[in-house]
Amino acid sequence: MELKSVADYLEQEGQGVMGKTIFVGEMPAACTAGILLLDRYYGTQINPYLPKYRMTGFRIAVRNPDYEAGKFAARSLNNTLTLTADTQMPDILVKLMIPQNDPRPYRRSVGGYCEFEVDFDCTYVIEDPDLRL
Q: Looking at the predicted structure, is the pLDDT value of residue 108 above 80?
């Protein structure tokens, strides 16, 4: 999944700042309130019959020291990333992006932060002229 494109889109939509409150792959332990974008465990499958077209998904984890604020932030991301019409993001054209669940809470972390996770399905087209599949 092109998570950097989604992170850039979240920044454009006013959901945070890359490297301060929006992270891809890993969120620093020192970050008390932030958004982490993670690939699905199985990655992004390639269909050789639909070049540059991807049907995949990703996960978002939201961290906040306050339970209700974290839950609200995760729900806000569900709204921001529910895309049912073509949406241009950096390097990809999103055809459909939808959350698969309401924010799922975790137990408090060692640092005392609340975390919520949401899984998303996403269908998009990669806009890279050098990519064959």
A: no
- Identity of the residue numbered 119: D
Helices (H), the chain: 3-12, 67-80
Q: What is the pTM of this model?
A: 0.93
Give the span between the Cα atoms of 125 and 127, in whole angstroms: 6
Backbone φ, ψ for residue 84 (5° rounding): -115, 5
Which helix (H) or strand (E) segment holds residue 9: the answer is helix 3-12
Give the pair of three-digit tokens for residue 30: 């020192």
Alpha-carbon distances, residue 42 vs 33, 37, 46, 106 (angstroms): 27, 15, 12, 22
Q: What angle do CA 84, 88, 92 make, to 5 degrees?
A: 105
**Nearest alpha-carbon partner for 97 in 111, 87, 107:** 87
Q: Is 98 within 8 Å of 133 (Cβ atoms)? A: no
What's the average model confidence in pLDDT over 79-103?
Answer: 97
Q: Closest Cα to residue 35, out of 73, 67, 66?
A: 73
Is 73 strand, coil or helix? helix
Bridge partner residues of 97 (DSSP): 83, 122
